[in-house]
Design a protein that fits this description.
273 residues, alpha+beta, Uridine Diphospho-n-acetylenolpyruvylglucosamine Reductase, domain 2, 2 domains, five-stranded mixed beta sheet, 7 strands, 42% helix, binds protoporphyrin IX containing FE
Length: 273
């Protein structure tokens, strides 16, 4: 194994050889340098979010310490994401029901329009707006915030996101509330597990020939949107938005640089564009 940690791997030009080694050699193991367990293969990535012994956040710290008592902390405390228990189940049902009724065709049309606006605006480059502003505006518009309120909501969300990373652990990190055993290995209460969704996507046990790009795959196992009881309810909407933006970029003949660098983030692979 190289000196790379799963956190550093997020910024590698090609992290997949590293992930493949984790999947085959250390599918569920404690990383000394990271001070956390790492779940890399499909079996572990399925087991962790579905376990009652684990929590999305440290049980004693439901809101990141750095933002307790701030407006960002108040919003964080109401999120469906990064919570567990009966409140999460109840609120998630409401959010999932609403998302299931979202008109994805309308969302795609709106996304295409906002994308064209961003491309026409020119400026330093449309990428920041396409990666963050447009999706936030579309979701805001679907909730009824239109006529400028969509832009205002997108700005507020960007501000909130700025407040969180300083003290929040990665979203895909889980903390053991009580002992958790997987593959014969015991995680003690208080320890953390980092769930590597991108590594599990390419586990040959669930996706044969996983490194080949084959759009016609039958029943691919995709962990990008999480797993088990914490699986993302926004997948159809997010996919419709992403497809609409890519379609507009292709129509405009725009592409990004071939080898971008990636941001210093623990839980998302976001390019510097
Ligand atoms: C490409 C875009 C997206 C990706 C890759 C993504 C990915 C994920 C992942 C991996 C999780 C699981 C987090 C965890 O286990 O702690 C999650 C949870 C969640 N996502 Fe998404 N998501 C996307 C877009 C969206 C959108 C557009 C919405 C709603 C408008 C949404 C709503 C949620 C909610 C409410 C949860 C919490 C589920 C729970 O903890 O039970 N997501 N998402």
């Amino acid at each position: 194994m190289t000196a790379t940690t799963p956190i550093d791997a997020v910024r590698l030009p090609d992290p997949y050889p590293y992930y493949a080694r984790l999947v085959s050699e250390r599918p569920f193991a404690h990383d000394e340098e990271l001070g956390a367990w790492v779940a890399a293969d499909a079996a572990a990535v399925r087991a962790v979010p579905g376990s009652d012994a684990l929590r999305a956040r440290p049980p004693a710290e439901p809101v990141p310490r750095g933002i307790v008592g701030t407006p960002a902390g108040e919003v964080f405390a109401d999120l469906v994401r990064m919570t567990d228990g009966t409140v999460q189940v109840r609120l998630k049902t409401v959010v999932a029901d609403a998302l299931a009724r979202a008109d994805t065709a309308y969302a795609a049309r709106l996304t295409a329009r906002f994308t064209r606006e961003a491309l026409e605006a020119g400026g330093a480059g449309p990428w920041e707006e396409l990666m963050f502003g447009v999706p936030a505006r579309v979701v805001a518009a679907l909730t009824g915030l239109t006529d400028g309120a969509d832009r205002e909501a997108a700005r507020a969300i960007a501000d909130l996101v700025q407040c969180i990373p300083a003290s929040a652990p990665p979203a895909q990190q889980r903390a053991a509330a009580t002992p958790f055993v997987h593959d014969g290995r015991a995680v003690a209460g208080g320890q953390q597990i980092l769930v590597l969704l991108a590594a599990a996507n390419r586990d040959p046990a669930v996706n044969p020939d996983p490194h080949a790009l084959s759009p016609g795959r039958v029943n691919p196992m995709v962990f990008t949107f999480g797993a088990s009881s914490h699986r993302c309810p926004g997948e159809p909407l997010a996919s419709a938005l992403a497809a609409a933006i890519v379609t507009e970029l292709r129509t405009a003949g725009l592409s990004t640089t071939d080898t971008p660098t990636y941001r210093l983030l623990a839980n998302a692979r976001i390019p510097n564009l």
